[in-house]
């Protein structure tokens, strides 16, 4: 099938309050979100859904649907992200988490890694008092206090630099982020990769809290409670980079196998917590143990947390991640204890 995807940037600019707008025309916000991130391929969506979105954006279907253009992936060196929800270069990434689930640590790590690879990091200071933002300030090169300051800085830097830009949801609710992105688009600046967080944690309870996104990182309370970081849910996090034509088929195959294993492991874990692993059917014990090992392997030491964890930060090439996960799923490491797979880089 021809490589097609939604013009997410256009939707973001034209329909700021997409949640309410979608409901007003009978669309489920979750469906719209899944179309934007590629979890539901455009080719499998209902025609009436696409027509309704085009009407909301006051554009034609040809404008809404982009054909033949690939979304470039930024390889982060973070196993969970690169496998399950790759970072879309020049896109908008939403971090969905409650306070205390590690979203600012992950954001700081992303800014650290991108800065090391030549990106300029810019923060739009959130409204109100948020002392927790100090946790990411070491990774920020430029701070803007108003949307106009941010525009001037991004417009100037974006002419010859790649930029990692971070902002709080308060600027999304006000419509300022959408206006900013439209103004940058109008002057031909497409080098800004935007990270949106919600310092209040309200996003967890809302549909499309950031509007249309290219990448969604959904944090998981259970992983966070068990200190499995980054606590990004590998099943519900997604990215438009994952559309079939954008990734190597091997990546997609391994990703789908890993999701299936983790989904079943989570179901079995609920049973094990009540009855113990010995009560599982023999056919499911292997699935449970391999899922447990895969979940452990997906934890990772961060550079920005070295002073707190005592563990050296690790960066893993995507190909190594794919090879390691295939080995775990195929049983090559069945004899290795789970704690030996926790907070490591690649398999030895």
Automatic annotation (TrEMBL):
PROSITE patterns: ATPASE_ALPHA_BETA. Pfam families: ATP-synt_VA_C. GO terms for molecular function: ATP binding; proton-transporting ATP synthase activity, rotational mechanism. Keywords: ATP synthesis, ATP-binding, CF(1), Ion transport, Membrane, Nucleotide-binding, Translocase, Transport. Its main location: membrane. It is found in: Membrane. Residues 246-309 form the ATP synthase A/B type C-terminal domain. GO terms for cellular component: proton-transporting ATP synthase complex. Belongs to the ATPase alpha/beta chains family. This is Helix-turn-helix domain-containing protein.
């Amino acid at each position: 099938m021809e490589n097609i995807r939604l013009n997410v940037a256009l939707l973001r600019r034209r329909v700021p309050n997409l949640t309410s707008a979608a409901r007003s025309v009978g669309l489920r916000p979750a469906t719209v979100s899944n179309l934007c991130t590629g979890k539901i391929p455009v080719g499998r969506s209902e025609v009436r859904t696409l027509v309704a979105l085009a009407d909301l954006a006051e554009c034609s279907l040809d404008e809404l649907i982009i054909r033949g253009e690939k979304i470039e992936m930024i390889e982060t060196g973070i196993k969970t992200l690169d496998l399950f929800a790759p970072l879309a270069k020049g896109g908008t990434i939403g971090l969905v988490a409650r306070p205390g689930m590690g979203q600012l640590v992950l954001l700081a790590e992303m800014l650290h890694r991108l800065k090391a690879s030549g990106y300029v990091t810019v923060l739009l200071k959130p409204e109100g008092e948020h002392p927790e933002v100090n946790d990411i300030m070491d990774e920020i090169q430029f701070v803007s206090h108003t949307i106009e300051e941010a525009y001037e800085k991004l417009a100037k830097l974006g002419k010859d630099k790649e930029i990692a830009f971070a902002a709080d949801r308060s600027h999304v609710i006000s419509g300022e982020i959408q206006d900013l992105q439209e103004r940058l688009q109008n002057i031909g600046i497409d080098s800004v990769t935007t990270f949106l967080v919600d310092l209040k944690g309200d996003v967890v309870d809302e549909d499309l809290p950031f509007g249309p996104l290219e990448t969604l990182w959904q944090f998981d309370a259970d992983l966070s409670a068990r200190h499995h970081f980054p606590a990004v849910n590998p099943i519900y996090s997604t990215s438009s980079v994952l559309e079939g034509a954008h990734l190597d088929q091997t990546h997609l195959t391994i990703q789908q196998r890993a999701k299936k294993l983790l989904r079943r492991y989570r179901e079995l874990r609920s049973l094990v917590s009540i009855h113990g692993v010995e009560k599982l059917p023999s056919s499911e014990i292997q699935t449970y143990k391999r899922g447990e090992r895969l979940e452990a392997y997906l934890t990772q030491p961060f550079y920005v947390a070295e002073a707190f964890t005592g563990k050296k930060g690790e960066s893993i090439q995507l190909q190594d991640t794919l090879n390691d996960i295939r080995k775990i799923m195929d049983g090559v490491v069945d004899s290795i204890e789970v704690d030996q797979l926790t907070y490591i880089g690649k398999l030895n």
